[in-house]
Every structure is written in structure tokens, then in C-alpha cells.
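Table S2 (text version). Query chain:
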Amino acid sequence: MWGILTALLSGALMSVQGVFNTEVTKQTSLWVSSAFVQFTALLVCLAAWMFTDRTSLATLAGVEHRYMLFSGVIGAFITITVVKSMDSLGPARAAMLIVISQLIVAYLIELFGIFQVEKQPFEWRKMIGMLISIAGIIIFKW
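Corresponding C-alpha cell output:
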């Protein structure tokens, strides 16, 4: 139950953040806005770390698959691509395409066991669900 609520909150926050980032970008620039977003996220994370966990930052050196440490770089590109897509498509269409893209990529990661994720068998019902989602986007667009 908590996982479902957390996922719903995450989606809502991503949509609101995308709108905020797009508006800030219109008033500044893509790079100023993105840098500010990442910087303020860093401040929040550092504050949370200071008050909760305090695990040594040196533990990052022990991360087994070093390429996983590039997730912050990916986060910067997420910010940029969300802003650009929301600016050109509007929040609703952009969010739908972002979600379907997440769904397809996540399913492929599970299906092929990429990035040390446990490999899952192909299921037609999941494929049909994705196709219905894509059909929903097409219907929404037109």
C-alpha cells in the first residue's frame, strides 16, 4: 500500500516540478534553471543526510558497478528533457509520453535483466497493457 501511495506521490511531484522548471526556464535559461534545480536538490539531500543517516560519503567508493554512479548525470538530463518536452507539448501530453517511456524501458530492463535487475519472463498481459496505454495517448492527443 505504501509503495502505491509513494509512486502516486512521485508522479504528482514530477508533474508539478516539470511545470515549475518550465516556467523558471522561460524566465531565465535552460542551464540556469537546471543548475538551480540540481543545486537545490543537493542542498535538500545534504540536509536530510545530516539529520537522518550520516553514512560516510566514502561508501560511494565501494559501489560495485561504478557506472551506477552516473545516475546524477542522468538526473540532470531528466530535468532538461522534461522542461523541453513540457514546453513544446504541454504538461499533460509530455507527462503521458514520459510515463509510457518509463514503462517501456522499465519492462525491457526487467525482461532482459539489465543493470543487475532480476530477469522476468515475458508476459502478454503486460504487453497488452502497454499497447492500451499507447492507444490512450493517441486518443488523448487527437
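Notes on Table S2: DSSP finds five helices and no strands in the chain. Residues 2-141 form one domain.
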